[in-house]
Amino acid sequence: MENNNVKDESNYIFDKSMNCPICDMDFKTKQVKTGKARFLGTEEDLRPKYTGIDTIKYDVCMCPYCGYASTIREFNNVTPKQRKLLRDEIGSKYVSMEHNEPYYTYDTAITRYKMALLTAMTKPARGSEQAYLCLKLAWLYRGAMEEVQENEPELPERADYYRELEEQYIKKAYAGFTEALLKEYPPICNMDEMTINYLMAQLAHRCGDDDSAQKFAFMVVGSRNASANAKEKARTLIDEIREARQETRE
Ligand SMILES: [Zn+2]
Known about the structure:
Blueprint: H1 2-10, E1 13-19, E2 26-32, E3 39-42, E4 48-50, E5 60-62, E6 69-71, H2 80-91, H3 106-122, H4 127-151, H5 156-183, H6 193-206, H7 210-221, H8 228-249
Antiparallel strand pairs: 1-2, 3-4, 5-6
Helix pairs in contact: 3-4, 4-5, 5-6, 6-7, 6-8, 7-8
Bound molecules: zinc ion.
Zinc ion (ZN) binds at residues 20, 22-23, 25, 63, 65-66, 68.
């Protein structure tokens, strides 16, 4: 069982050569092969699902020598001033950790994302970028929880541990995007206005802020750019909130 899993996930990835813009060392990072994993769709909060692999695990690139980490897209996006700051604040304190796994486990991926979050806070990167890292961390904790539920159903307290952390990072993501929306304009993290409103509706609902959830969901329903699918999902959310409110009144 275990061996099969290892073989399967390794089939979807390859080693990509990188050069660190902070310490100038060469290293390899694992990347998902394009076109190999089949896209199954997204969950309510836009978490993408693929066959055979959780691609989110591989979105962060981390230098194993100095600890600098970010999404591949932003990896070389550093100013000389930020380079110095990152060397002083992260590089000098980082203890090199080599992982020789055939693929990234959830725990490894979570560590890499935490380093990316630390990097983003140090730079500092845009608020939306930090919020998006928090959202993806929440997705990773959800994935870790699902994996425990499937492979180790005898350890419910371990699943609960991941569920609680997922919750925490959903809250951080919601707070982060709320603040980012005051200063930034779409597209935000590659999301157009409709997509970000849709995401905010879902995050607000998860955080118990149903007034905001409704406000964002109505913006999606009323948007000319929204797909039929997004409108449908937003309407479902509005109905859910309405029903829940009626139940508490009765
Ligand atoms: Zn480095």
